[in-house]
Amino acid sequence: MIVEMRRGATQEQVDAVVARARKHGFEVQLNIGTDKVVVAILGTDTGSTPTETFEVLPGVEAVTRIMRPYKLASREFKDEPTLVRIGDIIVGGPQIVVMAGPCSVESHEQLLATARHVTRVGARIVRGGAYKPRTSPFSFQGLGEEGLHLLKQVRDEVGVPVVTEITDPHYLDLVSAHVDLLQIGARNMQSYGLLRAVGQSGKPCILKRGLSATVTEWLQAADHVLAAGSAQVILCERGIRTFESATRNTLDLSAVAVAKLASHLPVVVDPSHATGRPDLVLPLSLAGVAVGADGLIVETHPNPEHALSDGPQSIPTAAFGEYAARVLELARWAGRSVT
Ligand code: PEP
Ligand code: MN
After folding, report:
1. Positive or negative, the Cα torsion across 174, 178, 181, 183?
2. pTM (predicted TM-score)
């Protein structure tokens, strides 16, 4: 249930709505907008509570029920776009934000060379996996803690924010201390304990869509992070499982457009995992920007044939300048600003 306060409602009036909700055993989330406050009343049994319970309180403009299965991620709760801040970078604003780097952190030399090059040609955030969720236990599992140290070192040397995947709540404090942005991988979209822990930490995160999750399930997963207290969630479409085998996954461009309409959260596209093919990374990046994505997260490696993970889908770092130039050109065409 959504309680919309009148413009100019006092803090006491908002507090009274919150107090009544809590008295009924509900949880509450506030959206303090530029001109009014919206209070979301959350719980398993809000359906049997009459809207009059809140309508009668002073300062209340309207009370409506959110009919969608996702609540806090919905435009009904918050229509203004959420801006996710990573240092001085904003995802969800007018600018298209390109994040790039290797699938896995392999060495200082590899990460530094990649970071220096991609930031010089337009990437704003550097990616690199330290804990890798691999389908086989016999594949490279990432450098773990050593990978985190390398991310932090390169972050400080280059002066660029870094993002890495968090696979387990157990590593949350450690990972958070080394990076600026957390990634929740496709395989973990429904690890609700992890989502809650990331939400409680307040650290900005990228929430990848699960391999066979519907848009509704994806937005419900975002609700888990938001309900735990963080407002800083970026959605990432990274391809879903379909019958098609020409690409590693199928990039669901409709989902990008649907998520932008249904939710206030920023959406980015990962064309690398979506296609599994370096020759499709550029065209699908352009398509992602054209349908409204707020950014891209792309795998690139100085030497893809020697990469320890996802080499076959990584674009060579030497080709990244040309890639970024084309993306930024399209971003301008789509009316988005670029630096
Ligand atoms: C990755 O970013 O390297 C990764 C494992 O992504 P996903 O969770 O989308 O498979
Ligand atoms: Mn990868």
Report:
1. negative
2. 0.96
